[in-house]
Amino acid sequence: MQMKTVRNLKKNGKKLYYDEKLSIENNRSYGMDKKNTVPMLEKALDILEYIGTSETAVSLPELQANLGIAQASCYRIAATLVQRGWLEKCSGNRYEIAAGVIPVAEKARFRLAKYRHLQPVMNRLADQIGFSAKFSVLDGDEFVNVCSAQCRTGLLSFSRPGFRASLGRIATVSTIFLSEMPQAEQKRIIDDSQQNEFRKQLQSYRKHGYCFIGGQPGAEAELPFDTLSFPVRSANGLLLGVISFLSLPGELKTEQENIARQIGRHLKSIVNAL
């Protein structure tokens, strides 16, 4: 009987089932180098993968039964991973993935380095438009600033690349990304108290093709700057990201239509560089 390791399991609703084709493919990829692997480490990784793909917390007996790992080994591995902060113990002697694994996976989850080549293009864009600029991409329920450039004559600059913000926060960038999503997703992400404001922003964006939010002057203002954002699309219309500009209150408000008229060629430069 072939062992059902987590590498050979797929989700089917709430259950996991064995996939023979996946097993064959995986055997080709790592089975040939089996002599160079560490058995106990493989078991630990199997446990992490199994718990990570399960919809609920997992008990040790379930791990033993599905992964074929001895009770003592299963317990020691789980205890070690809890101590390391990669697993957390839940009620009923069940285990769930813990936040300690996030820093380990973050580099693979999102790589800022692949956007560094955009910097010269962004620098030209900021100087030619006359306002500091940033390029944001979607990552789950967040958007990430992956490249920013400060205008040589500008006083303001965006947050550094890597800064994340929730789509649930009303902003020009989030409005554009949310506009591509089904209404049910929009309602899930946007708090009920902000639905009306979001709808206003969405209506304005769909009317003009860009999104603008004006700031208020004063050090105590909740939003002390103007932001103006445009969608960046591929040749077939796929939303690749969002270009945004930043200014002191009132500056972008008077320039938004002028920028909208000339932004097309700059967006093509961004698309060509991606």
Explain what the structure shows:
The structure is a single chain. The N terminus is likely disordered. A hairpin with a 2-residue loop joins β1 and β2. The chain is elongated and about 70 Å long. The strands form 3 sheets. The protein has a 6-stranded antiparallel beta sheet, with helices on both faces. It has 2 domains: 100 residues, Arc Repressor Mutant, subunit A (Orthogonal Bundle), CATH 1.10.10; 164 residues, Beta-Lactamase (2-Layer Sandwich), CATH 3.30.450.40. Helix content is 43%, strand content 21%. It has 274 residues and is an alpha+beta fold. The protein contains 10 helices and 11 strands. α7 packs across α9.
Secondary-structure map:
Layout: E1 9-12, E2 15-18, H1 20-30, H2 39-53, E3 58-59, H3 60-67, H4 71-84, E4 87-90, E5 94-97, H5 102-109, H6 119-129, E6 132-139, E7 142-149, E8 164-166, H7 172-179, H8 183-189, H9 195-208, E9 211-213, E10 226-233, E11 239-247, H10 251-273
Antiparallel strand pairs: 1-2, 3-5, 4-5, 6-7, 6-11, 7-8, 9-10, 10-11
Characterize the overall form.
Answer: elongated
- How many beta-strand elements? 11
Distance between the termini: 49 Å
Could you please say which CATH topology of the largest domain applies here? Beta-Lactamase
Mean pLDDT: 85
- Low-confidence spans: 1-32
Q: Can you name the CATH architecture of the largest domain?
A: 2-Layer Sandwich
CATH class of the largest domain: Alpha Beta
Instruction: Give the spatial strand order of the biggest sheet.
Output: 8-7-6-11-10-9
From the helix content, strand content and strand pairing, which structural class follows? alpha+beta
- What's the domain count? 2
CATH H-level name of the largest domain... which superfamily? GAF domain
In N-to-C order, the SSE pattern is: EEHHEHHEEHHEEEHHHEEEH
Radius of gyration: 24 Å
Helix content range: 40-55%
Question: Biggest sheet, open or closed, and with what strands and sense?
Answer: 6 strands, antiparallel
Query: Helical segment tally?
Result: 10
Strand fraction equals 15-25%
